[in-house]
Each structure stands twice: as C-alpha cells, then as structure tokens.
Amino acid sequence: QLQLVESGGGLVEPGGSLTLSCKSTQSSLEYYTIGWFRQAPGKEREGVSCISPSSGHVTNYADSVKGRFTISRNNARNTVYLQMNSLKPEDTAVYYCASGGGYVCSVDLDATSYAVNYWGEGTLVTVSS
C-alpha cells in the first residue's frame, strides 16, 4: 500500500509559479514511477507529467505543459516535485500524484489507468487575476 500526499497548491496570478510536492508518509517512493495528473472543473482527469524510479532519468510531459513544467525527485526527502512556471488560467485544476506497481512513465491516462492504483487526495491550483 502506497499512501501519497500532495501539497503546494494555491492561488496564483497568470504568469506566476508554484511548486507542488508529493510525499509518502509510510513507504519509499524511490522505486516507483510517479505521475502527476490533473482534473479541471467539468473535465476528465488528464496526465500532466511523470518520472521514472530511482534516478528519474525518464520524464514525460503533456504537450500543454512542455517547456513550462518540470518534474523532479529527491529520494533522500522521499518527495517528487512538479515545478510549474508561466501558469495559465487553463492550468486551474486539482492536481494529483499517483503511482502503481506496474506503472510505466506515461501521461496517457487511458493507456495506463489499469496500472495506476495509488492516488493522493489532490491539491487545488487556481490561476486567476
């Protein structure tokens, strides 16, 4: 069982930045692929970014966030981060980190949903002036 906790959400103006954190309080995240997903009001949940286990040498991003968001991991702190820059109103959503034993780094939720079975409760990001 992997328990994930997100933090770092909040209200930010367009063009601003936020850093989200994903931690596990009871298990090591080092050996898990971790994904960030988001769900905007009235829309389906979508993949944002993911990072491979251990060194995190494999990362993937949704086209909508490429060049603006950066995912990273600090295994010593048992934390995965999502640095979000140049935020837009359309980035407003609840952001979730997630993982699973068979999850391979992909932001295609339709293709990988069967393998993503551990979810945090989410953190709200609101981009508005």
Summarize the structure.
This protein has 129 residues and is mainly beta. The protein has 1 helix and 11 strands, in the order E-E-E-E-E-E-E-E-E-H-E-E.
Description:
By secondary structure, this protein is mainly β. It contains 1 helix and 11 strands, in the order E-E-E-E-E-E-E-E-E-H-E-E. The chain has one helix spanning 109-112; strands spanning 4-7, 10-12, 18-24, 34-39, 46-51, 59-61, 69-74, 79-84, 93-99, 118-119, 123-127. The relative contact order is 0.31.
C-alpha termini separation: 40 Å
Q: How many individual helices?
A: 1
As a percent range, the share of helical residues equals: under 10%
Biggest β-sheet strands, sense, barrel: 7 strands, mixed
Shape: globular
Low-confidence stretches: none
Could you give the count of β-strands?
11
- Taken in chain order, the helices and strands follow as EEEEEEEEEHEE
Question: Roughly what is the average pLDDT, rounded to an integer?
Answer: 95
Radius of gyration: 13 Å
Classify the secondary structure makeup into a structural class: mainly beta
Strand portion, in percent? 35-45%
Which tags fit this structure?
single chain; 129 residues; seven-stranded mixed β-sheet; mainly beta
